[in-house]
Design goal:
Length: about 100
């Protein structure tokens, strides 16, 4: 997805230029994209809850929370520590 591509590019920039001129901008944009990625998975969890698909709801809550799941792209590190992850953890606890 475009969000993951953007996150990968910001990560590469920050790794290549740790004291780069645009470090602050890259960190800010990366944080915004991390929240968008989490919001995307929360939205999918909401959809699955509406259609009574508990398995789909749980999957996307787990992803939004930053839990590593077998067979999923290793992007969950981007979600850990986000506000979306905190919301997902609350919802998982309530299931």
């Amino acid at each position: 997805s475009a969000i993951l591509q953007g996150l990968d590019q910001f990560r590469a920039y920050l790794q290549s230029f740790p004291t780069g001129l645009y470090r602050a901008e890259a960190e800010t944009a990366s944080a915004e994209l991390r929240e968008l990625l989490g919001a995307y998975h929360l939205m999918l969890a909401d959809y699955y809850a509406r259609i009574d698909n508990a398995e789909g709801e749980r999957l996307h809550l787990e992803l939004a929370a930053g839990h590593a799941l077998p067979g999923q792209r290793d992007f969950v590190e981007y979600l850990r520590g986000t506000q979306a992850a905190a919301k997902a953890e609350e919802r998982l606890a309530a299931l």
